[in-house]
């Protein structure tokens, strides 16, 4: 399948993909996200809410600017509780209420994903797309939307997750991190919820395949024959290594390996560096933003 579409159609494809990204990142209704943050922040700090901030969006301009920046880099905003001595305590579990996007990877990484998928079509690199670690599924929804927009019918999108959050750390390299559902319930999103979100975008169909369970149990035996894009977003050393060990050899030459957490989770970086050393991989690691890197398999 080549990327040979008439330019007018290409324009429509780009417009669709742009609206899809804006929607997945909740850029379209960003002022509502700012209002919700204001309300929750007032409740947490027992402050009387000035209702004007709900009607006069100009009052939230500063917060909207911060949110816009955060959505570029796929960062998140933590609400803080002000203590009597004026010190601040973060309230991480409120991410559930304030992070309203359908993907947390941010604009730069979604744009990078689009470029990689375009390269794959342009160069006829064979194989499906997979993300290991999908949260609400937004990145995989974008993959399916991309295939639909180019009318590609011979590639699957694989959606791999426990659908119950990150496992408790069990590997030595992960011993200092606990991202499991008891600490970060925001990361546990059920399979039903992810399917429902695919449906909202009219993108739930037989070209989407779900792999439910821990990566160590699901990925080795998954009926995937070939991949052109392997996107790793499982945060931990263990999750990154399990995915690479099971899937790297299925990536076609010219295919892409994208690592979401290379710059943000040190044990993920260790996993990547260890795997590349063991397998003598010298393909250049290319940065996407301060968190994410990718390489093209030679
Ligand atoms: C940071 S979130 C992924 C964000 C997502 N890529 C997006 O577009 O917003 C990490 C996800 O990895 C999953 N996960 C991490 N380690 C896992 C493992 N070993 N097995 C299965 N799922 C895992 C968690 O359930 C969670 O949904």
Short description:
The protein is of the alpha/beta class and 298 residues long.
Write a structural description.
The protein has a seven-stranded mixed sheet with strand order 5-4-3-6-7-9-8, with helices on both faces. It has a two-stranded antiparallel ribbon with strand order 1-2. The protein contains eleven helices and nine strands. Helix content is 41%, strand content 14%. The radius of gyration is 20 Å and the shape is globular. It has 298 residues and is an alpha/beta fold. α4 (61-73) runs parallel beside α6 (106-122) and α10 (237-247) runs parallel beside α11. The longest helix is centred in the first third of the chain and has 18 residues, at 7-24. The chain folds into two domains: 30-98, no CATH class; 106-296, Rossmann fold (3-Layer(aba) Sandwich), CATH 3.40.50. It binds S-adenosylmethionine.
């Amino acid at each position: 399948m080549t990327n040979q579409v008439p330019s007018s159609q290409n324009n429509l494809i780009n417009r669709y993909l742009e609206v899809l990204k804006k929607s997945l990142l909740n850029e379209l209704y960003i002022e509502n996200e700012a209002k919700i943050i204001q309300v929750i922040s007032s409740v947490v700090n027992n402050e009387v809410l000035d209702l004007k901030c709900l009607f006069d969006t100009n009052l939230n301009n500063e917060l909207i600017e911060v949110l816009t920046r955060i959505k570029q880099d796929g960062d998140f905003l933590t609400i803080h509780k002000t203590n009597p001595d004026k010190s601040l305590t973060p309230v991480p579990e409120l991410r559930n209420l304030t992070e309203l996007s359908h993907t947390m990877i941010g604009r730069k990484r979604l744009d990078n994903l689009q470029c990689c998928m375009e390269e794959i079509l342009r160069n006829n690199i064979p194989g499906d797309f997979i993300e290991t670690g999908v949260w609400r599924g937004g990145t995989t929804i974008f993959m399916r939307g991309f295939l639909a927009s180019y009318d590609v019918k011979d590639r699957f999108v694989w959606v791999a997750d426990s659908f119950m959050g990150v496992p408790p750390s069990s590997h030595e390299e992960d011993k200092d991190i606990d991202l499991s559902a008891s600490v970060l319930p925001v990361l546990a999103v059920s399979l039903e919820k992810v399917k429902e979100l695919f449906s909202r975008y009219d993108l739930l169909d037989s070209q989407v395949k779900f792999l439910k369970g821990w990566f160590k149990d699901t990925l080795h035996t998954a009926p995937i024959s070939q991949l052109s894009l392997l996107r790793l977003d499982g945060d931990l050393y263990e999750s990154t290594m399990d995915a690479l060990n099971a899937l790297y050899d299925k990536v076609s030459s010219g295919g892409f390996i994208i690592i979401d957490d290379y710059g943000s989770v040190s044990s993920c970086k260790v996993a990547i560096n260890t795997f590349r050393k063991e397998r003598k991989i010298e393909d250049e690691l290319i940065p996407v933003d301060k968190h994410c890197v990718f390489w093209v398999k030679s």
